[in-house]
Every structure is written in C-alpha cells, then in structure tokens.
Amino acid sequence: MDAWASKPVETQQKVLLDLLSKGKDTQFGKDHEFSEIRSAQDFAEKVPVRDYEGLRSYVDRMVAGEADILWPGKPLYFAKTSGTTSGAKYIPLTKASMPSHIRAARNAILCYINETGNDKFVDGKMIFLQGSPEMQEKNGIKVGRLSGIVAHYVPNYLVKNRMPSWETNCIDDWETKVDAIVGETKEENMTVISGIPSWVQMYFERLQDATGKKVGDLFKEFNLFIYGGVNYEPYRSKFESLIGRRVDSIELYPASEGFFAFQNKQDDKGLLLQLNAGIFYEFVEADSFFDDDAKRLTIGEVALEVNYVMIISTNAGLWGYNIGDTVIFTSLKPYKLIVSGRIKHFISAFGEHVIGKEVEQAMQEAVQKYSFSITEFTVAPQTATDEGELPYHEWLIEFDSEPDNLEEVINFMEASMREQNSYYLDLTEGKVLQKLKITCLQTDSFNRYMKSQGKLGGQNKIPRLSNDRKIADQLISLQP
User: Fold this and answer.
1) More confident residue, 84 or 52
2) CATH tag for 356-477 (out of 1.10.3230, 3.30.70, 3.40.630, 3.30.300)
C-alpha cells in the first residue's frame, strides 16, 4: 500500500494504460479508438463522461449475453441495483474486478489490526448485515445484490465465525430477517458488527427489546463496528446509547461499481483512495460539472477542500462513468477523501448550493453540543409558504430523544449552515430565505417510508437532502 500511495500519479497512469490495453478490442474500445489513446488527456477527448443511461446501450447487450462489449469476455455477475431514474441497473462485475472488492475490505481490517494491535475480535463471531446471497441468472450470468455476491467470497478463515446463518441471510423481508438475526445472535460472543448504520441501529434496537440489555452488556467483547454507505457521525450518539460505550469503527467506501476507499487510521476520518485497484479516477469540480467545458482532472491535479464529482473507469468495463458521488480531498500525501454527497442530492432552489456534507456537519455539531440523539433525518426546500412568509429549508427529523430547547438547536444549526455555505448566508441575510425549520416526525417514520418504497433494509439508504418535496411530502403524509 505504501508503495503505490507514495507514487500516486505514476500508479494511476499505469492503471489507465493497463485498462486501455485490455479494453481496446472490445466493442466500446473500438468505438472510442482506444488504440490511439496515449494519455489521460487523449482519454478525456475520446471518452465522454456518462452515467448509467449513457452506457445503457452497451450494458443491455451484455445483459442479453453478448461478449467483448465493455470488457473482454462476459462478466462474472451483474450487481442489480434500483436506480432512481433508470429503473433496475445491472452493474457488471468481472473476474478482474472482483478481487479488488475483497482485497480492500481485508486491507481495511489489517490496517486496523496493525495500528491498534487489537486482533482479539477475529476469535469471536462476526455479523455482516447484508442483502440475500441468493442469485438469479440472466443469459448465463448470475445476478444479485452486491452485498449478497460478496457473501460468496468471505475468506475461509472467517466463514466459521460469520453470522447470520445462510438460511437467515436468504430471508427477503427485512423485518423478519432482523428478528431472525436477533434470535441467532443474542446468545453469541459477537465481536464485529458490520453494515449501513441505519439498519444496524434497527438490529440493536430489536436486540435491546428482546433481551432488555444494552448491546455492550450483551456482547461484552464487541469492540469494532465496520460501516459504509452513509456518514456515521449523526448516528454515533444513538449508537453509543444503545451499546452503552464507545467502540472503534472503520469506514468503508464500497459500491457496486468498485471499492474506492477505506479508513486506514483511527484518528483520521479521511478515507485512503485505492489508486492501485483497477480503477482510473477523474474529478470534475461540482460547481462546474454541468458546464459544457467542465475540466476533467487526474489525481495529480486535485486540490484540498474542493467539492468534486468522481468519475471512474474500471476493469469491470465502466468507462468515464459518473457514479453520482461528490468527494472532498482531506489529504494529498497520501490521497484521502470524504464523501460529501451526491451530485443529484443537493438543495439549490434559490442558488444556495447546499450539499450533504454541510447538513450532516450542522446536525453532528448540534447533537454533540445539545446531547440529543436522532434516528434519521432529511432536508428539503419549502417554497409553498403562506403569503408574506419567506421560503425555508425544512429539516424532517425523527428524534430518538427530542431536545428540550428546540429553538436553541435551530439557531445553532442555522449558524452552522451560514458559516459553512456563503450562498446560504447571502440568501438569508438578503431576506430571500428565512432560517431553517425543524419538523419532528413520529417514531418509525423513516422505516415506514422506506417500506412504502420497497427499500427497507439491505444497502438502501435515505437521501440526506433533496431539491424537491417528493420525500418530504411522503414522510409528512405518513404521520398519524
């Protein structure tokens, strides 16, 4: 890891040339003249940035069973995801790309052991809250959820301690599955628990309901939480209350499209970008992403504290692919980043350009200062106000323990938003927006909403913010 991290530009150049060499005889490689590409600049000129819809004509041919379309041969799997605009998406996983998913997860744990000296947890039981490992087949290629596919690749030395059982993991209904997991694990010596924070929180709550004990009293050796998908910090207070103590955590940045980064230092929230994992990265400043002349930057051209859209080209055959995430670099030696949000998940109803990182930071600071805890939250603009009333940002929050001084909390979060975002500051000072408002939601509101969308559990997560009222209005309509 140190070898490639210390030579980031050379490593990425080598990855790009290797990808082009392997992809030049595919249909995509011929269509985009890979044989003539000699540099990242050539690549950017010949291969436009595309999202799933832009690559769909190629992917559809692969799903239909054709070989040598985006990558040599046929994929090993398709990771099926539910797109918000595209319906079902089929993300290819290849013989070349699969090992990097496993290697990155393993290295994250090995880095933790190396840094802390804590390796006792490997002797206890480990749980990975994930989608069903059962798969379907399309034209000879297996199809499933990424977490279910990865379940087939758990190293032999971990299998004996892995939970839940295969049968329980295959239960489709999430609430039934969580109850079954509680039944299987409550008497075990659980030492590692992994999953998206919101769904692990549900598991912890069900454990507590079933046993009457805090998670930390139930699992005395539990000392490592591994997570990804969403920022853990807004959940941390609730987690520590459910556990009864603080536990170490490791953040991962995996996706169906690739395993991009992981936390390799306990005292550093930045995630080490995996530069030697068959993925070539490009970055476009988020503020200019939708401009016709938006510049694509390589790893050696990025700067600290700039919000970038991350573009990937991979050994699974995704070329110039926009995964939709925005990232901010926290270190350039080595290259570390945090996920700041989604390029489509923002609020700019009035030009305020509010992003996920800003609302999460405001919430996290408020939770720490006022000692309340939340189950979940999302933010949306409210423009349909009474005559004479200014529009505002509505924060829909499901509190675990509601603060007594809600108005103080609102003022504190408002100050945080103004400090972080100069556009928001100008609009509020200019009387275009009034200060934010909080709408308190009933217990279980977000679970009911996700269930109504068929997205309860697994790898599904609620968007932190939206530029419209679709989610907000549905959440409000579900209130008793």
Assistant:
1) 52
2) 3.30.300
